[in-house]
Amino acid sequence: MNEGDRTSPSPPNPADCPTVYPWDQGAAVVEIQELLSAHGASGIRPDGDFGSKTERAVKLYQKRHGLRIDGVVGAETWTSLRSSIQPGSRLLQPGLVGSDVMELQGLLRVCGYEVRRDGYFGEKTRAAIKAFQREHHLRPDSIVNSTIWTLLRGRRNLSSASPTRNYKQKKRFKFFY
User: Which residue ranges form the domains of the chain, and what is each CATH number?
Assistant: First the structure.
């Protein structure tokens, strides 16, 4: 079961993901488009329409990763797209799957949140992100953006990003010129 919640569905297995063909539409296409964009494809809008631009991007991705170049997103392409995604290269939200989600879960565990590292953004991961957002005085919307990644990685805190504080520091140094 998903993250210990018996009422939630199990995390999607890439082999169980739908085979998506050019000209298909829907949520699976949106995820493909987001993954392609995160992998550097340009000109792809996550609109849920598997048009010619998306097909070209899929074929280019397949070629670069040594996959069968057919423009169809089957189990192998899904697995490759999800397993080679760099953390922070796409917005994360409930329902997504990937190595970036697994990295997120690992960082949450380091911060003391009890989540499983299964690569599926389920209910427990959503709850942990909302708690993390509240703790850092951010809107608790369960969306993991670059600010969340930065905070989780401990690169800086919100007080150092305060425009007032930076302004006062600049003003203080102005007197030394």
Answer: 17-84 (1.10.101.10), 88-177 (1.10.101.10)
